[in-house]
Amino acid sequence: MTKKEIISLLWVSLITGVFFFTFFTGDKTIQNLILSILVASLYSLVIGGGNGVVNNLLSRKFSWIEHTRTRAVLGVIAVLFVNAALVLLCNYVNFVLIQNVPFSKFFSGSVGFVNWLMINIALLISAFLHAKSFMSEWKKASKKEVVEQKLIAKSANAQFESLKNQLDPHFLFNSLNVLSSLIDENPNQAQRFTSSMSKIYRYVLEQKDKELVTVEEELDFAKTYCELLKTRFEDSVDFEFNVNENDRKSFVVPLSLQLLLENCIKHNFATSAKPLKIKIYSENGNLIIENNLQQREQVKESAGIGLSNIVQRYALLTKHNVYVEKSDAFFKVKIPMLTQKITPMTTTNDNEKAAYDKAVKRVDELKGFYGNLISYCIFIPFLIFINLRTVPEYQWFWWPLFGWGIGVVSHAVKVFGIGSDWEERQIRNYMKKEEENNKKWK
């Protein structure tokens, strides 16, 4: 037990002792006040401390989050046996040792009723402590999960921003290289290229901060960019666009086509005799960029910004993968077209959401059971007290005691024993038998 818990129990002892001394003690003396506080301390420290120790021991061995059912079942067993033993111990010290009540009357008469009443009160307090422990552990686990998800999201967001920031200087560097070549070869084309490049660069600045753009927007940009490449390479490069109209409203990562077109030019040679043919088309939910393979020898190793950038950005946005196919005749890249705009860096997939919903349902079931148990422990002793104070010759309290008790037991069996898993298994077994019977008749 912690120091804070011990101090709380001492305060409870003091308040309880003063309360019983004020309202239930006839001889108001200092000795009786001290005795009343000591007896209250006995009950508080032994019962409260014992339940605290058992609760902490069970929580260390069996987590409320990972072993919910085992922890709950052992908690119910511990509540019943530990509290009964602790209450009887305290009552034995109080009545037999302090008040000199004969042991033969310990389990009968008024002392027997006090035993029963105190056990129910102890069960109520213990049930409250276990429920509080469960809610505390669940809140800690929820807060921990939220913090972890925020860290994951921040990390993924930073990574995504870093990838997008590669696009701006990468595009500018390659475009300036093209422009530098055209200045010597054809100054007039270089001037037209500069004008077109300003329009394209405006698109780069507008789109690079977006997570997704429509296929139609990306195609329009790609066609303009292909015109620039055509200006430089003339009939050495041939472009073919064949994207279905229905796919144009789908989404892709921005500047993906520009990066892949650059890759085609960068890694392949193109001449009038052997032109580089680049096809852009849609198929089976993918936007495909395909070129005939005319691989050139690399003077230096590629930095790998283009394709790897696209792969990493898609990995952060969706579970759909980017596919690369290569043969002796062609090189093909398939990028998935997404049917709806998604929130980037989503950290909870369908399985996790289903698990979360199931966990929420489980928490509601446990809260309902503990609420039922606490209500039973509160109202049944109250009804017994009312019954014995008013008409002790007719003990009607047994009816709600057993009726409600059966309900609590049934609730416990449903939550910790059979539960919905059993129902689902029975339904699956029944459906399986029906399928087998149908096969036999066919």
UniProtKB/TrEMBL annotation:
Residues 358-432 form the 2TM domain. The keyword Membrane applies. It comes from the Bacteria. The keyword Transmembrane helix applies. The chain crosses the membrane at residues 7-24, 30-51, 72-94, 106-129, 369-390, 396-418. InterPro entries: 2TM_dom, Bact_2-comp_sensor_kinase, Sig_transdc_His_kin_internal. Residues 158-236 form the Signal transduction histidine kinase internal region domain. Keywords: Membrane, Transmembrane, Transmembrane helix. PANTHER family: SENSOR HISTIDINE KINASE YPDA. This is 2TM domain-containing protein.
